[in-house]
Amino acid sequence: MMITKEYIAELKRSGNGDIAVLVNAQRDVGSINYILENLGQLPSNFDSDFLYTLLKHSHAQVRLNAVKNIAKLNGKSDINSLYSLYQKESDTSVRREIVSAIGRQRVCKNKPLLYSFLGDTDPKIICQAIRGLLVFENDKEVEEHLRPLVNHENEMVRDVIYREYFAKEKTNTNALPHAETYDFLKNVVVNADVLEALKSVPNESVHLTFTSPPYYNARDYSIYPSYQAYLDFLDKVFQETHRITKEGRFLIVNTSPIIIPRVSRSHSSKRYGIPFDLHPYLVKNGWEFIDDIVWLKPEASVKNRVGGFMQHRKPLGYKPNSVTEYLMVYRKSTEKLLDWNIRSYDYKIVNESKVADGYESTNVWKIDPSFNKVHSAIFPVELCKRVIQYYSYKGDLIFDPFAGSGTVGKTAKALDRVFFLTEQEPKYFEYMKSKQKDSQLFKERATKFLTLEQFKSTTV
């Protein structure tokens, strides 16, 4: 006879032990697990003795499913049996489920057991125990056991305790609502060093930053005395970007490893892993890492590095063509969930900002690069379009500290956002300014092109 969900439900409702008979009749683990996984809610008259027998089963998945069902027994679970299994259980998933099952009973007599789990070596078990204890609100004894865990060696445990006992509601020093920004920043391009310009930008003004920093000594416009000096500069820029970013909002940094050519045939070229070296600085300064997106370009569009290897085929000399760049996605650390950000907008904006069908569902984006006679490393519009649509709402302020030819601004405006751009190089600033008259770059809404002094005079 085929065992179906309907048949299992019928036997369960009978309440005369027929489920136990069915389970005992099975000779393969798959069938036992199928029955256990489809029991659903258990009635008050459910005969649960067979579940405790299954705690001794040789297969870990059967023990796990047995524990899950024991946890549904409406306070009638035999906690001693579960704890006995915990003490000798070797499978981590089963151990975690036991702690969860005990915590879900929500009874004071289980607190000593939950306290004992706090000393486990598995951080997920500790977090399950914390979850079980937090249901006892305003319990001083529970608080005395949990508060010291803010110094636990595991970051997950520390974070849970910090959020519960030590995080304070952020005081908004300005009255600006989350969905709004300052008028003097809307559709503005500033010709200045970004660090100087940001001195005049208030805290929590920007909704999204999308940028590609200048590559280390790869272009004439980005010469630094050392690689460490380059990283220190970016560190300062993204510290300031963090300050001006609204709570819980995003930073997307487009970078890739680069090669500095060798000085002579007797020297080696040097390769720098910019995205990997920059990452620790961002995390240290309060940016929470969210995702890595790979921008995949056609092989014909990149410099050929594999040519020499194609000739000699000698091991150690292999150098693949670099057809990828990274979009590293970060979020400004916050105690609040994404829902809080979303609820800051009215229904109309949320509905109008929804991403249409055809969005990219993977973290590999196949997009052709763009080329420009004025700027050698410009963003493709499609790349900007995806980032802005996926990580902002209509009306949001989009910031690019290294604006280049202004593609971020162009795309933001086309998508009914506003933009704030800084660009130090006069030739790129003038290029953007020239495009204001005769292209789609900055149409409809007026764009201000300002020197640093002019920008300072407009700030609040």
Integer count of domains: 2
- Can you tell me the CATH superfamily of the largest domain? Vaccinia Virus protein VP39
The poorly predicted ranges are: none
Query: What's the helical proportion of residues?
Result: 40-55%
Distance between the termini: 77 Å
Placed side by side, the strands forming the largest sheet appear as: 8-6-7-3-2-9-10-1-11
Structural class: alpha/beta
For the record, what CATH class of the largest domain applies? Alpha Beta
β content, as a range?
5-15%
Q: How many individual β-strands?
A: 11
CATH topology of the largest domain: Rossmann fold
Largest sheet: 9 strands, mixed
State the helix count. 21
CATH architecture annotation name of the largest domain: 3-Layer(aba) Sandwich
Which word captures the global form?
elongated
Mean pLDDT: 89
Radius of gyration: 29 Å
Summarize the structure.
The protein has 460 residues and is an alpha/beta fold.
Q: How would you describe this structure to a colleague?
A:
Helices cover 42% and strands 13% of the residues. The protein has 460 residues and is α/β, with parallel strands linked by helices. The chain has two domains: 5-166, Leucine-rich Repeat Variant, CATH 1.25.10.10; 183-458, 3-Layer(aba) Sandwich (Rossmann fold). It is elongated.
Key structural traits:
single chain, 460 residues, alpha/beta, Leucine-rich Repeat Variant, Rossmann fold, 2 domains, nine-stranded mixed beta sheet, 21 helices, 42% helix, 13% strand, elongated
Write the layout of secondary structure elements.
Blueprint: H1 5-14, H2 18-24, H3 29-37, H4 49-54, H5 60-70, H6 79-88, H7 92-103, H8 111-117, H9 123-133, H10 140-146, H11 155-166, E1 188-191, H12 194-198, E2 206-211, H13 227-244, E3 245-255, E4 258-260, E5 270-272, H14 274-284, E6 287-296, H15 307-312, E7 324-332, H16 338-343, H17 347-352, E8 364-366, H18 381-391, E9 397-400, H19 407-414, E10 418-422, H20 426-438, E11 448-451, H21 452-458
Helix pairs in contact: 3-5, 5-7, 6-7, 7-9, 8-9, 9-11, 13-14, 18-19
